[in-house]
Backbone:
């Protein structure tokens, strides 16, 4: 019998666009450790969601951005890691800074949009990036 997952954890993700590039991080922690993904993480108690998005972006990449809109809410259910996240994904426009991996990110860099499909395994992440590009 499989152990039930704990209650979902609210978290944020940020699609930070700079021209024809998107900011990605290589995950340094489970779930999906080692995979390329969006910067983001858990919302702290008492923190506004949009503030969490900008904080996580800054902590994981050193980049400053302006939130341009809410994209979608995604269930990140990862039974192998024993986790369920409710991911609130935002679009953002790069303002300043060059990516430097920090916090939970093993790597951080801007990637040409035409390379996203080859780098990102999770279809939901690819869908969210496509949505950000289509709505900018």
Residues:
């Amino acid at each position: 019998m499989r152990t039930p997952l704990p209650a979902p954890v609210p978290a944020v993700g940020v699609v930070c666009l700079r021209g024809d590039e998107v900011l990605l991080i290589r995950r340094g922690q489970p779930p999906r450790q080692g995979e390329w993904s969006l910067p983001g993480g858990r919302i702290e108690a008492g923190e506004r969601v949009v503030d969490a998005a900008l904080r996580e972006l800054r902590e994981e990449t050193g980049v400053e951005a302006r939130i341009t809109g809410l994209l979608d809410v995604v269930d990140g259910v990862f039974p192998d890691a024993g986790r369920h996240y409710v991911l609130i994904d935002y679009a953002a426009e790069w303002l300043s800074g060059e990516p430097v991996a920090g916090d939970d990110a093993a790597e951080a860099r801007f990637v040409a949009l035409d390379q996203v499909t080859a780098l990102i395994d999770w279809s939901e992440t690819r869908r969210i990036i496509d949505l950000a590009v289509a709505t900018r």
In short: The mean pLDDT is 94.
